[in-house]
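Protocol step 4 of 6: structure prediction from sequence.
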Amino acid sequence: MAQTPGITARIDGSDQETDTGVRIAASCRAPGAGGNRARAPHAYGPGRNAEAFGTPRSLARRLSAEKAKAALSAITGDPAWDGSYILAADTVVCVGRRILPKPELVSEASSALHLLSGRSHRVYTGICLVTPDRTLRQKVIDTKVRFKRLSTLDIESYLASGQWRGKAGGYGIQGIAGGFVVKLVGSYTNVVGLPLYETVNLLVGEGYDVHDRWLEG
C-alpha cells in the first residue's frame, strides 16, 4: 500500500480510484513497492542498454506520461471524474546507462545483485500529474544508492528470502536489502517506490488540498 497525505491507493499494476478525486496510475517497476504489477508498455529484458529505450531518466519520464494518458483516456467522458486529478509514476533502476529489469527468475535476481554489489546505482522515478484542466505536469526524481560489497552468503540468503520478487534491480530498500545500503543521496521514498515530498509539492502547486483528509488518519 502506498500512501500520500490525502491519497491512498494500491500499487498493483492497475489504475486505482480514490475517494479524494485522484486517480492513481501505479508504477510497474518500483524497487520497493509490493504487489503484482503489469509489465511496462515497453518491457525490456535483462541487461539491455538504455539505447533501446532512451536514457533511464527519459524512459521514466516517458512511461509515467504514457500511464497518465492511458488513465485519462479511461475516464474521458465519465462526468464522475470531472475536475479530478490523475497521478502516474514509473521507476527505473540503472547502473550507468544499463537499465535493470524487474527479475522474474532467481537467476535474473542473482545477476542483478552481483552487478549492484559494491557499486553505486541510480533510481529514477518519473511522476506525471494531469490537472483538472487536463494539463500535464511532470517531474523526474533521481536518487543515488551505493551498496556494500555483497558476500555469497548475503546474496544467497536474500534470494532465499523471496524479497527480490517484483522489485526492479532485484531488491526492496524497505526490507532486508536496506542493510546493503552504504550511502544514499536523494529521496529515500523515491527508492521505496514513490517520492512523497516531490509528489505532494507537485499536487499542492496545482491546487490540490493535501491537508483535506489528514485528520481522518
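Step 5 (inspection) to follow. DSSP finds five helices and nine strands in the chain.
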